[in-house]
Design brief:
The complex is a heterodimer of chains A (about 180) and B (about 190). Helices cover about 25% and strands about 25% of the residues of chain A. With about 180 residues, chain A is α/β, with parallel strands linked by helices. The chains are: A alpha/beta (about 180), B mainly alpha (about 190).
Chain lengths: ~180, ~190
């Protein structure tokens, strides 16, 4: 099926569950609300014509300081091995309610990407059997891929960093 | 003066002559052999000998972290041949190694592991920080990388470069050997073993 056909079919079958849809650079994209995610994913997997049996990837996005609502987004990429077609599902998450249902009961491969979501963005994945940090150490504080997380860990004294260098010179202890 | 007195004088003179000759001969033998003794005996400090032995058998731990490890392996092969300086035996167990070459960036999660390996190495032990990432974080000024391995373990020699070539690492090892030899026999060297 082409991307347009996939969008048409999902629109007719799941009219209430879909916020909007798009074909972006040839890829089928659907936007859904976080509370509908599990129903829609189950439909996408079990429908015999769509048959999305392979979960390629789960990623997150943070649109802080951009003209866009809501702030966060969880993006699922699905692929069908038999039909050889793909779809992207984008789920917007409000800053105050970063909770999303797990899809690891449908695709076992979702276990690790969902832990990464929890680790890097701090999203609470409901129903995940082992929701702990994947990449960062267990006692780490903060979620590094959020845009308000500091980009660098310490200032450097390169010559272009004039102000920091001047402060260093001021606070330098007197030499003998 | 009678004949007897004359005879006594003669005998005494002869005896004195013989005594003088023996004394000269003994002195001469002393001069002859004293040089030979100084040529064949070497005096030094025990600490210097130990340091000399240590610097010529620096066994690194097999511990590669990133692309610098490729250059570290090249240092051991026949082209650069760190065996010339006694640093070719990469030991798979930290218990048999006395040099840790931190070859690459150390992530926050790797830092406790690196510290554990360092603690498992027997005294005396040395650390070479290889490359920009291990020395100061390099280009990775972010949450994932420790900004310099000297925050975790004490570093003896920093080798700059990204990555440093095998010849640069060899130069670092030679510098470490000089450091060991300068330190040998001093209180710092004794503290390393204690």
């Amino acid at each position: 099926m082409t991307s347009e056909e996939i969008i048409e079919k999902i629109k007719s079958d799941q009219e209430d569950n879909i916020n909007s849809s798009d074909v972006n650079l040839g890829d089928a994209v659907i936007f859904i609300a976080p509370e509908k995610i599990h129903d829609v994913m189950e439909y996408l997997k079990d429908d015999p014509e769509l048959n999305f049996d392979y979960l390629s990837n789960i990623t997150g996005a943070d649109y802080l300081n951009e003209e866009r609502e809501p702030r966060f987004e969880v993006i699922y990429e699905l692929h069908s091995m038999d039909k050889n077609h793909s779809i992207r599902i984008r789920v917007g998450l409000e800053e105050e309610a970063t909770t999303i249902a797990t899809v690891s009961d449908l695709w076992k491969g979702a276990l690790y990407p969902e832990r990464e979501l929890f680790d890097m963005f701090g999203f609470n994945v409901l129903g995940h059997p082992n929701l702990s940090r994947l990449i960062m150490p267990d006692e780490w504080e903060g979620n590094p891929l959020r845009k308000d997380y500091p980009l660098i860990t310490e200032e450097v004294t390169f010559s272009h960093n004039r102000e920091f260098k001047q402060d260093l010179v001021k606070s330098k202890p007197p030499t003998r | 003066m009678g004949l007897i007195d004359q005879a006594v004088d003669l005998v005494e003179t002869e005896v004195n002559n013989i005594k003088e000759n023996v004394k000269d001969a003994v002195d001469q033998a002393g001069y002859d052999f004293s040089g030979a003794i100084y040529d064949s005996i070497l005096t030094t400090k025990v600490g210097k000998v130990i340091g000399w032995a240590q610097k010529n058998a620096l066994w690194p731990a097999t511990f590669g972290l990133a692309c610098c490890a490729i250059e570290m392996m090249a240092m051991a092969n026949s082209r650069w041949d760190s065996a010339r300086f006694g640093a070719e035996v990469f030991r798979a167990s930290p218990r048999q190694a006395d040099l840790m070459i931190v070859s690459g960036r150390v992530s926050q999660k790797m830092a406790p592991v690196l510290k554990l390996i360092f603690d498992q190495m027997p005294e005396p032990k040395w650390v070479i920080s290889m490359g920009a990432c291990a020395s100061c974080g390099g280009i990775f000024n972010n949450y994932a990388i420790v900004q310099g391995v000297d925050r975790v373990v004490p570093v003896d020699v920093y080798v700059p470069g990204c990555p440093p070539g095998p010849e640069a690492l060899l130069y670092g090892i030679i510098k470490l050997q000089e450091k060991i030899m300068n330190e040998a026999g001093t209180k710092q060297a004794a503290k390393r073993v204690a």
